[in-house]
Design goal:
Chain A is mainly β. Chain A folds into 2 domains: 2-171, TolB, N-terminal domain (Rossmann fold), CATH 3.40.50.10070; 180-447, TolB, C-terminal domain (Neuraminidase). Helices cover 13% and strands 42% of the residues of chain A. Chain A is built from 6 helices and 31 strands. In chain A, α3 packs across α6. The relative contact order of chain A is 0.11. Chain B is an alpha+beta fold. Chain B folds into 2 domains: 2-34; 58-181, 60s Ribosomal Protein L30, Chain: A, CATH 3.30.1330.60. Chain B is 50% helix and 17% strand. In chain B, strands 5-8-6-7 form a 4-stranded mixed sheet. Chain B has a two-stranded antiparallel ribbon with strand order 1-2. Chain B has a two-stranded antiparallel ribbon with strand order 3-4. In chain B, α4 (90-105) packs across α5. The longest helix of chain B is centred in the first third of the chain and has 33 residues, at 2-34. The chains are: A mainly beta, B alpha+beta. The interface between A and B is large, with 48 and 39 residues.
């Protein structure tokens, strides 16, 4: 586990032309019905490097595999039409050195990504060096690129970092590919589900299970500043909020509360956890400072107050409460003052989650027996429903605030068979709804921040 | 001769079957228009004849005996709730009085009251709702003389349904609090 997380990008060079060119830009604020044709040329790997890498990773052609990671990432955004590499006319090594732009224009590619993988030995240890270039085919120019050196096992992350660079350059927004998703892996019949905490790369690879399934675990959430996770565990039949360090595996209960604590979430600075405490039939929202160990009650109402989420500046908290008779969304200051209801549409509203950009709140809505994932502005105006289904909830934002991941459960048949729970993602535009592949059934996803170097 | 008689009877059976099916379909259509429940819910109702549903639910509170276990002989272990509600029905109060009476007679027994919700709500809200339901039952047991230190509450939200169906009847069985012996 530790090895996976330790980031070993030892060298990082930016390859840039002297002048910065404005490449074909993609507007991602609308649904994209005309994806940009892009070619990801297989990264060139020389024969000596291939042999060495094969010894380390048992992969024949690492350059090809890295280009596949990039291609897969870009295609799934819905913004790019990744062209089939069988149509490529130019060989990878020559394309990377100096592309013949006419050949790429001929297959209607507007953008070209090339690269080279070489093996290196530093202090008697094996490393790989990956160089990548981004080319504007119509402008016949290189517009971006970098090279980095890292341990061989880190190769998928290199693909993600390149994808982030390309996405950033072409959309003007920060990427979300070098990230991970923590979720609850589910197995077994609906009445006896076994649940474990699981973590995977954003594209579904490198799945690791963090608990054994001996006790029920729910709602894991990332600390936005580090590799800590907060979640609910039924350890010893005492449902409590826990803190887990995914690098060391160390876990501890959060605070000392006289009842069930649940619905935890970190503050944007990662130093506090907000959660609900249920006691004597009443749920209130509490905050606990992890540095000072001071805990404080924020709401004071005989109704159910739960699912709290901070605004990115930490000044406000949104939550859901049934104080009006039904579950609705409220916003208050982070000290608990100035509570204001913001959802007034038809139906009941829950699980508000503040966008990392600060301008929107994602929510689950139940109306006429259907569940919707939607967004509204932080004052409750501009409600927009993105997707409708039999059952879905628990939206979580990608770190750039462009995509929402959630889980969906199926309706069972007349014999109670056919239950499944899966992760899905959808663009903020309401387009590009996608099943997120997981090894098992899955629920309660939480998206990490970009991992950094 | 015999064979043709059998065939004829078989034919009649098929015809009869068709009529019954037709009636059932007609009835379920009627249910759909009458009930204020959703189309999805109504779809599943088609599977359960209306007579059966009437006998098993009052409003949307389950009143049947399927899934009901015993805390002790003659003492049902669970009570059921309406959607989003924590109010105890007359039948629920009767069940809880039986539980209280038995617990008063068996003063060494401690219990856990488990609170549950159906799958038609968000996970976190349901955890809170389950806790509220378990406490509604606990409070009633206390009113009838069981001391609070003998009763623990544990909410499972929607995590432990007893019926895996996705229809109003299944959901009504899952909206429950169950009193379980803890020692």
């Amino acid at each position: 586990m530790r090895k996976k997380i330790l980031l070993l990008f030892v060298f990082y060079f930016i390859l840039k032309p002297g002048v910065s060119y404005s490449l074909v830009e993609i507007d991602i604020t609308r649904g994209n019905l005309d994806p940009l044709p892009i070619s990801v040329s297989p990264f060139f790997t020389d024969e000596i490097s291939k042999e060495k890498i094969k010894k380390n990773l048992e992969i024949d052609n690492l350059g090809l595999e890295i280009s596949k990671v990039i291609e897969n990432n870009l295609r799934k955004t819905g913004l790019f039409d990744t062209l089939n590499n069988e149509s490529f006319l130019q060989k990878p090594d020559i394309a990377h050195f100096k592309p013949r732009f006419e050949d790429w224009a001929l297959i209607k590619s507007q953008v070209l990504i090339t690269g080279r993988v070489t093996s290196k030995i530093i202090n008697e240890k094996d490393y790989i060096r990956i160089e990548f270039k981004l080319w504007d085919v119509l402008g016949a120019k290189m517009v971006d690129g970098f090279s980095l050196t890292t341990v061989p096992t880190n190769w998928r992350r290199v693909g993600h970092k390149i994808s982030d660079k390309v996405y950033e350059r072409l959309t003007g927004e920060s990427g979300y590919f070098d990230t991970r998703i923590i979720y609850v892996a589910e197995e077994g019949p609906k009445t006896q589900r076994v649940k474990k905490l699981a973590i995977m790369d954003q594209d579904g690879f490198n799945t690791k299970y963090l608990t054994l399934g001996n006790e029920l675990v729910l709602t894991p959430r990332f600390n936005p500043t580090n590799q800590m996770v907060t979640y609910l565990s039924y350890f010893r039949n005492m449902p409590r909020v826990y803190l887990l360090n995914i690098e060391t595996g160390k876990q501890e209960v959060v605070g000392d509360f006289p009842g069930m604590t649940f619905a935890p979430r970190f503050s944007p600075d990662g130093k506090k956890i907000i959660m609900s405490l249920a006691k004597d039939g009443n749920s209130e929202i509490w905050v606990r400072n992890l540095e000072t160990n001071i805990q404080e009650k924020l709401t004071d109402h005989p109704s159910i107050d739960t699912s709290p989420s901070y605004s990115p500046d930490g000044k406000y908290i949104t939550f859901n409460s049934d104080r009006s008779g039904y579950q609705q969304i409220y916003v208050m200051r982070s000290d608990g003052s100035k509570v204001k209801r913001i959802s007034f549409g038809k139906g009941i509203y829950g699980t508000p989650v503040w966008s990392p950009r600060g301008d929107l709140i994602a929510f689950t809505k139940l109306h006429k027996g259907k569940f919707f994932i939607g967004v509204m502005r932080t004052d409750g105006t501009g409600e927009r429903l993105l997707t409708e289904n039999f059952y879905q909830e628990a939206p979580s934002w990608s770190p750039n605030g462009r995509i929402i991941i959630f889980y969906r459960e199926t309706k069972t048949d007349n014999k109670g068979q056919g239950f499944s729970a899966k992760l899905w993602s959808i663009d903020l535009t309401g387009y590009n709804e996608r099943l997120v592949l997981t090894e098992t059934d899955a629920s309660d996803p939480s998206w990490s921040s970009l991992l950094g170097n | 001769m015999n064979l043709s008689k059998i065939l004829k009877n078989a034919f009649l059976v098929v015809i009869f079957g068709l009529i019954v099916t037709a009636c059932a379909t007609k009835k379920s259509v009627k249910t759909t228009t009458e009930s204020s429940t959703t189309t999805k819910a109504a779809e599943t109702q088609k599977a359960d004849p209306i007579e059966k549903l009437d006998a098993l639910m009052q409003g949307d509170v389950y009143i049947g005996t399927d899934t009901v276990g015993e805390l002790a002989s003659g003492v049902p272990d669970r009570v059921f709730f309406a959607t989003n509600e924590t109010i105890l029905t007359t039948a629920s109060r009767e069940t809880l009085r039986k539980q209280a009476a038995w617990l008063r007679q068996n003063s060494d027994v401690t219990v856990v009251v488990e609170g549950h919700a159906d799958e038609r709500g968000t996970r976190e809200y349901n955890l809170a709702l389950g806790e509220r339901r378990a406490n509604a039952a606990k409070d009633y047991l206390m009113t009838y003389g069981v001391s609070s230190d003998r009763i623990k509450v544990l909410s499972y939200g929607k995590e432990r349904p007893v019926d895996s169906g996705s229809n109003p009847l299944s959901w009504s069985k899952n909206r429950r609090s169950v009193t379980v012996k803890a020692n």
